[in-house]
Design goal:
Residues 158-697 form the Ribonucleotide reductase large subunit C-terminal domain. Residues 739-839 form the TSCPD domain. Residues 47-137 form the Ribonucleotide reductase class II vitamin B12-dependent N-terminal domain. It catalyses: a 2'-deoxyribonucleoside 5'-diphosphate + [thioredoxin]-disulfide + H2O = a ribonucleoside 5'-diphosphate + [thioredoxin]-dithiol. This protein is of the alpha/beta class. Among the domains are: 164-350, Anaerobic Ribonucleotide-triphosphate Reductase Large Chain, CATH 3.20.70.20; 574-642, no CATH class; 741-898, no CATH class. The strands form 8 sheets. Strands 3, 4, 5, 6, 7, 10, 11, 14, 17 and 18 form a 10-stranded mixed sheet that branches. Helix 13 (445-451) packs parallel to helix 18 (593-600). The longest helix is centred in the middle third of the chain and has 29 residues, at 459-487.
Length: 967
């Protein structure tokens, strides 16, 4: 895969490009004359995703086509997240082949147009190899690629962005705007606010400056608003401040003070659960905060000396503080609310390939991408378990040769994508095209280590992780140098050539001195050593096509796409997990890595069976029959009876970090018993061990908990009995004799009917008539009675959105196609009626949150990638023209015969009562909670209501694939 040919130039578009030789692409997985699609068995499946809390259907598409070896979860994620086109229309994608072709053929065409391939035959091999690797879940691009590439909307391929802001109001307002546009597209951004003068400095007018913390408040509110409009994921952002900024203490305290506010409001009776009504009053919650420390500060902490805070405008000292006290203040804040994290500035810039252009000052929201301001990075991750080989004798090896070839293929594709990619701002586009930052990484490390019998926190585990990371990055830069020979190095290379080659030497030196441990990692180190020697040789000759090559991202949604057991660099969450079954339902299974590990450790089949049964029953390996205590550590997980120590996480990060261009998205989980001193030690060791950034999370430290019916019931049970009970009765608001209305004829699954919806003159639905075509039938009679009940409820104040949320997605016959362009499919007449009422009477924001959009709105979503409100005001005069006829007055009068108000009040109250707490788990996180008797501090998914789990520095929903970060 590394050959080039000396054919004629093909018109490279790269500035300063050399004569184009063209890449020769080698076949690794595919066969000449046979398309990868023809080598697998395809089957049709129905994807129906529900919210288990209320039974509503979040997504439904039937008859989708996937290979038979894809899991239910992977099929669900890809169908609901990545297939393009409106559901129910011919334009909707319905096969994995269509999705892969849309992306892969776009990459091939761009590669041919930009002179990457030596011949059309090489372009075809590239297409087939890329399609094979995706089809067989060997790797995946980051989500924006699957969302956007090959569609009519902007072809944004990057998930990670870094912005910049200067000390001017114009720049600050540009920051708000640019960040908002990135959030609107579903991505995240980070930036450093240290250029903004502190509140201890003067303005040119003579007054005091506001300081960066005050401007954070406005940006936080903006992010929260944009998040609420999308209603599917939080706005992901990172805010960084240098440790020598005069406002650093105020920055550290921002979330601590808000946490105190949460406690006070909670104790006063306000609903401060995550997702509760009152939590929105809390500020600074839409960003991850990090303090950027330098070596001078960390040495001052060690020596207990003073440290100077410097003015932004003059660089002169403004204040002198005790470094150890400031460091402790950071640790105290992180112990309470997990923020701020820490970034090690000198370490980061020591590995910077482009320092002549500018320093690295910030990161993306999850902390893995670190490079120049106003830049972006597109990511892709390799599934490490796909390269683990087991021979007939039970011996294991890591297929380093095939891993390197797939890495070359993926890096080539990632670089090609920059040729056609769109960017949210022109500044980001210019920087990314000039430096071509890439972020190849991997997932399933935790599963690989367990399957090979390595404890996550062990020398052997770290050696294997380090060797794989070194081989990946070395191969990536080798390929980058080969591409540079074909289409030229990145535009900023000439100015930064010495620094770039120095950093390559640093990587190579780290590889040479790394410890080799066993038969698994030693061959991988050998392959990595050879790759780095090629990097040094080819880099000096050709330069490099990419300023950076690798990161370790959270791999949230794409990890589920690849059926990975573990995300990014994380260990396994637990030994037992949920598996969804074809045809519905789920089952608890012991991870497949467990029997692999036991076999590697030398256990016999009957012993393995007994140990697996013990794990299935207890969720851990403690006291498992025949299992040696010295092997317990192999099965240690992120949570559970035997959880990995905090320093175990830090040591793993340190093992991989010297072999990465960027950094690692990871949160160091700490037990609830951890002290402030423990946090200080983690931050200190992170610096000494050479990591670039890390964050900590102390279990149960945050006050806000996910909203759940159980917690609500417990709060009610704990509340003291009131001394006096005041009963409030609803008051019926009758409609006037003359009332505006809309009459709609409809057909659902062949059944015809009419609906008349009458409103109050001052807006608001108050009455519904339903007539089916067959008078006197049971269905017609039930619809008539149902409409009376709904109308009475509306007049007693039951909100329309309550009815919509309860009755949409209700399934019964007749169901099927309708004659309404806005609601093409209905699962029942009731489902259709309340979707139509929502479209006619509810504001965009409310029904959008319920997933109800008009045909025009869905079309706009396809064209722009987002829904936009375009609601006309309720026109009473226009509705009056369609008011009910006189012949309908008698039925209107029948609505006046209402049941007793007490009965109505009781019925409404019962319908609104919170559902009882679930008695069974619905994903791995909840299963672990039940086993351990704890409450995982993670938000509920906006899309499906499932409790999310940590993935790096972000959160991932196992139910629908939504993430809170940028992968």
């Amino acid at each position: 895969m590394t050959e080039t040919t000396s054919g004629p130039a093909r018109g490279s578009r790269a500035k300063g490009g050399k004569a184009n030789k063209g890449l020769r692409i080698e076949r690794v997985h595919t066969t000449p004359g046979v398309h990868p699609y023809d080598e697998v068995t395809w089957e049709r499946r129905d994807v129906v995703m529900t919210n288990w809390r209320d039974g509503s259907i979040n997504f439904e598409q039937r008859g989708v086509e996937f290979p038979d070896f894809w899991s239910v979860n992977a099929v669900n994620i890809v169908t609901s997240k990545y297939f393009r086109g409106a559901v129910g229309t011919p334009q909707r994608e319905n096969s994995l082949r269509q999705l892969i072709d849309r992306v892969v053929k776009t990459y091939r065409a761009a590669g041919e147009d930009n002179g990457y391939f030596a011949s059309p035959a090489d372009a075809e091999i590239f297409e087939h190899e890329l399609a094979y690797a995706v089809l067989h879940q060997i790797f995946a691009f980051n989500s924006p690629v699957w969302f956007n590439v090959g569609t009519k909307q902007p072809q944004q391929v990057s998930a990670c962005f870094i912005l910049s802001v200067d000390d001017s109001m114009e720049s600050i307002l540009d920051w708000y705007k640019e960040e908002g546009m990135i959030f609107k597209g579903g991505s995240g951004a980070g930036l450093n606010l240290s250029r903004i003068r502190s509140s201890k400095e003067l303005l040119s007018s003579g007054g005091n400056a506001s300081g960066p913390v005050s401007f954070m408040r406005g940006a936080d509110a903006s992010a929260g608003t944009i998040k609420s409009g999308g209603a599917t994921r939080r706005a992901a952002k990172m805010v960084v401040l240098d440790v020598d900024h005069p406002d650093v203490e105020a920055f550290i305290d921002t979330k601590v003070k808000e946490e105190e506010k949460i406690r006070a409001l909670r104790d006063a009776g306000f609903d401060m659960d995550l997702g509760g009504d009152d939590i929105t009053s809390v500020q600074y919650q839409n960003a991850n905060n990090s303090v950027r420390v330098n070596d001078a500060f960390m040495k001052a902490v060690e020596s207990g000396s003073k440290f100077e805070l410097r003015g932004r405008m003059t660089g002169e000292p403004v204040e002198e503080v005790d470094a150890k006290q400031l460091f402790r203040k950071m640790a105290e804040a992180a112990h309470v609310c997990a923020d701020p994290g820490i970034q090690y500035d000198d370490t980061i810039n020591h590995w910077h390939t482009s320092p002549e252009t500018g320093r690295i000052t910030a990161s993306n929201p999850c902390s893995e991408y670190m490079h120049l301001d106003n830049s972006s990075c597109n990511l892709a991750s390799l599934n490490l378990m796909k390269f683990l080989r087991d021979d007939d004798k039970g011996n294991q090896s890591f297929d380093a040769e095939r891993f390197a070839k797939v890495t070359e293929l993926v890096i080539t594709a990632m670089d090609i994508s920059i040729c056609f990619a769109d960017f949210p701002t022109e500044k980001i586009g210019e920087t990314t095209r000039a430096f071509r930052q890439l972020g190849i990484g991997y997932a399933n490390l935790g599963a690989l280590l367990m399957a090979t019998g390595h404890a996550y926190d062990s020398d052997g585990g770290r050696a294997l992780a380090g060797s794989i990371t070194s081989l990946m990055t070395g191969t990536s830069y080798k390929r980058s140098a080969e591409i540079a020979a074909v289409v030229g190095p990145y535009e900023g290379y000439a100015r930064n050539a010495d620094a770039h080659n120095r950093v390559m030497k640093q990587h190579s030196d780290a590889n040479d001195v790394a410890t080799r441990m066993d038969d698994l990692d030693t061959p991988v180190w050998a392959a990595a050593t050879e790759a780095w020697q090629d990097v040094l040789r080819l880099g000096k000759k050709n330069g490099f096509r990419n300023a950076q090559a690798s990161v370790l991202a959270p791999t949230g949604t794409i990890g589920l796409m690849m059926d990975c057991d573990t995300t990014g660099v994380e260990p396994d969450l637990a030994l037992v997990k949920f598996k969804k079954l074809v045809g519905g339902g789920s089952m608890q299974i012991v991870n497949n890595t467990v029997p692999k590990a036991l076999k590697r450790l030398g256990y016999q089949p009957e012993q393995i069976e007994a140990i697996v049964e013990h794990i299935a029953e207890h969720g851990n390996v403690v006291d498992a029959p025949s299992l040696k205590p010295e092997h317990y550590e192999v099965f240690d997980c992120a949570m559970g009876e035997r959880s990995i120590s905090p320093m175990g996480h830090v040591r793993m990060m340190a093992a991989a970090q010297p072999f990465l261009s960027g950094a690692i998205s990871k949160t160091v989980n700490m037990p609830a018993s951890s002290t402030v001193e423990d946090v200080e030690e983690i931050y200190l060791q992170g610096w000494k061990l050479g990591t670039k950034a890390l964050a900590v999370y102390v279990e149960n430290s945050k006050v806000g908990q996910p909203l759940s019916a159980k917690s609500k019931e417990e709060k009610k049970a704990e509340a003291p009995e009131p001394e006096k009970v005041v009963e409030y009765r609803p008051i019926r608001r009758r409609l006037p004799k003359g009332r505006p209305g809309i009459t709609t004829s409809f057909t659902v699954g062949g059944a015809e009917g009419y609906m008349t919806a009458n409103s109050y003159p001052d807006d608001g639905l108050g009455e519904v008539f339903l007539k089916m075509s067959k008078q006197g039938s049971t269905l017609a009679g039930m619809m008539d009675a149902f409409s009376i009940a709904v109308s009475v409820g509306l007049q007693y104040g039951v909100p329309l959105e309550t009815y919509v949320s309860k009755f949409t997605n209700m399934r019964f016959e007749p169901a099927g196609m309708t004659d309404d362009t806005d609601v093409r499919m209905a699962q029942s007449i009731v489902d259709y009626i309340f979707r139509r009422l929502a479209l006619d009477f509810l504001p965009f924001e409310i029904r959008s949150a319920l997933g109800i959009h008009s045909a025009a709105e869905r079309q706009r979503h396809l064209e722009t990638g987002s829904y936009e409100a375009n609601e006309e005001e309720f026109d009473a005069d226009a509705l009056a023209q369609s008011a009910p006829k006189a012949g309908q007055d008698s039925q209107a009068a029948s609505h006046e015969e209402a049941p007793d108000s007490k009965d109505t009040q009781r019925t409404v109250a019962e319908s609104e009562a919170p559902a009882p707490a679930p008695r069974e788990a619905h994903n791995s996180t909840e299963l672990l909670e039940m086993q351990l008797g704890l409450n995982a501090d993670a938000p509920l998914c906006f899309s499906c209501g499932t409790k999310m789990r940590r993935a790096g520095s972000c959160y991932l929903c196992e139910g629908c694939g939504s993430t809170s970060g940028c992968s």
